[in-house]
Description:
seven-stranded antiparallel sheet
Amino acid sequence: MGEIHVESTVRIDRAPEEVLAVLHDIAGQHEWWPGQYRSEPLDHDDDGRVARALIGNDVKIAKDDFEVVYTHDDNPDGALGYRWAIAEPSTLQRSQTGSWQVRPDGAGSEVTLRLMVDSTLPLPGFLLKKALQDTVNGATEGLRERCEG
């Protein structure tokens, strides 16, 4: 099928530091990310941030468990956040990369989630893209609801 790229941006009425605190709580991610049933930290970096985690997703058309490796650094364009990639191919993915980017926006934040997946599922590309777009839209909306409480 090849790589599928999707993204979603949302404005959150909280300071970037507050949004980042929620994003860095990988262990609690499954509580607000629709379809995610597991987010289990496996290792931390020297600054105490999650470096590796086991993630489980059920996105209506498929269920998959995989290990994620995180890179915590500022993005080249000055946004705050982090990036990730799966450690090795999983049952349903040859590869996956993603990023959360948080930028100040007045008294709040503009938050963008980008996701790329190369899936092994034998489905038409438009169905896979819709499932992934629904996933990132749900994640950004879930993050907004979690942050704004």
